[in-house]
Amino acid sequence: MRVFLIVLDSFGIGELPDAAAYGDAGSNTLKSVSKSEKFKLPNLAKTGLFNIDGVDFLPDDPAPTAAFGRCMEKSKGKDTTTGHWEICGLVSEKPMPTYPCGFPDEVIAEFEKQTGRKTLCNKPYSGTEVIKDYGAEHMETGALIVYTSADSVFQIAAHEDVVSVEQLYEYCRIARKILTGEHGVGRVIARPFIGEAGNFTRTAKRHDFSLEPPKDTLLDILKNNGKDVIAVGKISDIFGGKGVTEKITTVGNTDGTEKTLALAGRNFDGLCFVNLVDFDMLYGHRNDVDGYAAALAEFDNWLPSFTEKLGKDDILMITSDHGCDPATPSTDHSREYTFIIAYGKKIKPVNLGTLESFADIGKTIADIFGIDAQIEGKSFLEEMKND
């Protein structure tokens, strides 16, 4: 039995009821990108994506091929770590700490002491703008560029000619050990860049150092029951490697889909969990509506080549972890409904309605494998199973 779970990172489908409390009233990633001339999703439309409750701005399909629905986020937050943990049955009752005014002096002082380097910036910043504004000073002084965003992240940018990538990773490990307890941010992120002043470019050698989940998730449960848990993209990083049996790194969406297609030709028993990060990192955060739409069209075009490789017992699920509406003034994540598409020869096309938690996905996957998982969520397997 194989389940493929693909996360289109940041592909939200409309504001949640509590979106205003997060500053996200009116956000709708799907609606925004649907206005682009590059938006062409015939295959996702056929699965029932546009039939989902609340998607009233696109034509639905009269005969969808998959089970479909929308998911509410039960956790407090709208970041990648919180979203993925909830998908796997771990609801976060408290939001992870964020730093709209930068990190406190004691955190920065300890980081500088342990790394032996001074720091620059220390405030919320766009990742591309921060190297534009601080890159030259970093190259002159060797000081590390430390910044954050609206998410629970501690990001360290450094030029590869000043700080080697491996050294940058070590600085991130130092920060990860410092940032626990009260300051336990979701992720410490290495952001290496190259180039010259006025033309700096971030590289694909980004690496996330996540907080380890405080208790077992779906991944641990599958692994403990002898199942394969193949993590593609940044999935392993998001879970601190916990519950993963095989880690496959990627350098963008195209590489991620190619490696996922190759895995469809492999014989394994368990879960292949994929994150496609470009939607969020390259387009959502950069307010690039056309780029986002084009990336979705590329995924949509790839989809049939993958589904044709699925065996009679295989199930494909496609979902997201939060929103990141590229048409709003904000460059940060948005508190939105996500979607769930479930496709397979033994799955009947049915409207699953509105699920109360992302965790329903994890509970359903456990149910597919016949495992009574003690995690959050409610299984929808019976609703979509062909008798």
Task: Summarize the structure in words.
It is built from 13 helices and 14 strands. The chain is 32% helix and 20% strand. It has an eight-stranded mixed beta sheet with strand order 10-9-11-1-12-13-2-14, with helices on both faces. Strands 3, 4, 5, 6, 7 and 8 form a six-stranded mixed beta sheet that branches. It has two domains: 2-92 and 211-384, 3-Layer(aba) Sandwich (Alkaline Phosphatase, subunit A); 105-209, 2-Layer Sandwich (Alpha-Beta Plaits), CATH 3.30.70. With 387 residues, it is of the alpha/beta class. The two termini are 17 Å apart. The longest helix has 19 residues, at 289-307. Helix 4 (105-115) crosses helix 6 (165-178), helix 9 (253-264) packs parallel to helix 11 (289-307) and helix 10 (278-284) runs antiparallel to helix 11. Helix 5 (127-141) links the parallel strand 3 and strand 4 (144-148).
